[in-house]
Amino acid sequence: MFDKVLIANRGEIACRIIRSCQKLGVATVAVYSDADADALHVRMADQAVRLGPAPVADSYLRGDLIVQAALDTGAQGIHPGYGFLSENPDFVDAVTAAGLVFIGPSADAIRKMGLKDAAKALMEKAGVPVVPGYLGADQSADVLAAEAGKIGYPVLIKAVAGGGGKGMRLVTAAADFADALDSAKAEARTAFGNADVLIEKYIQQPRHIEVQVFGDGTDAVHLFERDCSLQRRHQKVIEEAPAPGMTDAVRAAMGEAAVKAARAIGYRGAGTIEFIVDGKDGLRTDGFWFMEMNTRLQVEHPVTEAITGVDLVDWQLRVASGQALPLRQDQLQITGHAFEARLYAEDVPAGFLPATGTLAALRFPAQARIDSGVAAGSEISPWYDPMIAKITVHGPDRGAALTALSEALVQTQVAGTVTNLGFLQRLAAAPEFVAGMMDTGLIGRMPDLAVPVVPDPARLAYAALVAAGLDRDAPWQGFALWQAAPQRVLVGEESVLVTAAQGGWDVQVGDQIVQLRRAGPNWRADGALMPQALRHGGAVTVFGADPFTLDLPDPLARGGAGPGGDVVLSPMPGLVAAVAVTEGQSVTEGDRMVVLEAMKMEHVLRAPRSGIVAQVAVTAGDQVKAGVALVTLAPVDDA
Predict the structure, then answer these.
(1) Model confidence at 597, in pLDDT bands (50, 70, 90)?
(2) Which residues sit opposite 549 in a β-bridge?
(3) Residue 528's beta-bridge partner residues?
């Protein structure tokens, strides 16, 4: 076993690896950027080494600095976590050349699975089912269009070096193929430096089911499946294990195929074989196909750990240090059911835009497993993925686990930034999901999930009480000859009148009077128990089901009309990746104007109305702050 390990990552995965190392008595070394100098993973590790400035190109992607940090601190191995350099074979080569152990697969295995076309050809040779498609080297538009016709529409164009949905386009008709191909190739070239694509048959009711594998370089086992079908723009939202509707026969077939895939490349360590599954008529032994292999630990690995009782990081450390696989296939079994929900700082109504902020509060229920790299007081910065936590629950069956998930989400408290917590709560209660009838398009078919619930008068009255600081003391606890003067409180866009009453307050919201009364340490509004709430800075957050935050306007602040539809503003801090318009150009509402890169995602900012471009204030490569004017349209009278 290692004496000391360096973790070439940050955030929740770095913290999670540290915890397993601590159980084994292995010392840990963290690395950090300037933005993460006080991050939780830095505080948890035994040692920490600064890499450089906040941009990942200057810090977490500097493999040379990471290797040197390991050598300088006496670490024997480097654990890459996921993302960053975890699937970079050149980094693996550099680690091994320095006499260190890469806690993961070989560079050769990563290279074999790194390009989707080569990986599919290899899997087909190994006897693993693959989706019908074109994997050829001829990338001419005519050949690709002809192959798409042979496969039959709908087809999916995918970047061979892609991931995360980049360079991917769905084409339902031959007439749309040329434009979709151009778009996919351009995005792939920008994102990966490789414009090559493959074409494959599009499964119309697809489920995304993946199998956790673990190898020692010679043999391999599988630790059953995870269903990752709940996705938004190819990004996973809630994962579960085992997969709903899974039969013993299909599980055995998928597991056998996954182990074949791992053995075919002499895989060592934790990996995931992702299958696309035809969910139209139930799961079948002939209805799943290899999609790709992730040659690393997956974000959603906690659900597998929950149902198997296995610590996958523990296994990674043992196998990388030369030990055999801890368990045989016949010693592995499924116990119960587990869900994982990904809690992000993101503005759901604005299109799931990543958000920033300092966490004024962060509390989780004790009964859930929490994987997080932040705490109350931590900053969600614009530089990295805005994940706050992964919330994992386990129960004896799917129904019990789903109840535990819903309860955990309602009991989770976050303040200081907007989050997707309410969205997750509504998704967990969606009838289709509850029934286990989901596919990768389910979230897209339920747009109402992204619409925030408007606070009812009772919760709005309660928010006003907290805003005024009146929730801490209740008047009229006993007999008194005086009565506090009514107070008018501005909460969000609502002005409410708060009047003292026996044992509490009466709050007028519009034409409705809400009676707020003490109930021990809590409050009731018209008899209904209110959740906890917090005033932080210039806002109030009410927790519980469908949590919401209301700003507290300054009544002395001077108002003024904003630029309205004449200006395209940066919705967040980020890097200007491209500017698609020039001054004097005519645009139509919805036209692409600026592409902004922020928090590992690309955001297209479009024209708010038709008109003439009066000013372009940025160029590609500029770093901008939130709220900065990027493009200005000429006034309507001048257009």
Answers:
(1) confident
(2) 541
(3) 525
Residue 57: CB atoms within 10 A of its CB come to 9
Q: Beta strand 629-633 with 611-616: parallel, antiparallel or unpaired?
A: antiparallel
How many helices (DSSP H) and strands (DSSP E) are in the chain? Answer: 15, 40
Distance CA(394)–CA(373), nearest Å, equals 21
Tens digit of each residue's pLDDT (9 = 90 or more) over 332-369: 999 999 999 999 999 998 888 888 899 999 999 999 99
For the beta carbon of residue 360, count every other beta carbon within 10 angstroms. 18
Going from the C-alpha of 23 to that of each of 323, 418, 424, 593, the distances in angstroms are 17, 35, 32, 52
Asked whether the beta carbons of 541 and 489 are under 8 A apart, the reply is no
Measure CA of the first residue to CA of the last residue in the chain; give whole Å. Answer: 71
Q: What are phi and psi of 266, to 5 degrees?
A: 55, 45
Q: Is the pTM of this model over 0.85?
A: no
Q: Which residues are catalytic?
A: 296
365/522 Cα distance (integer angstroms): 18
The two tokens of residue 110 are 């990563």
Fill in the DSSP letter of residue 327. Answer: S
Rounded CA separation 293/295 (Å): 6
Give the integer Cα–Cα distance in Å for 144 and 276.
22
The count of other CB atoms within 10 Å of the CB of residue 280 is 13
- DSSP for 503-565, please give it: TEEEEEETTEEEEEEEETTEEEETTEEP--EEEETTEEEE-SSS-EEEE---TTSPP----GG
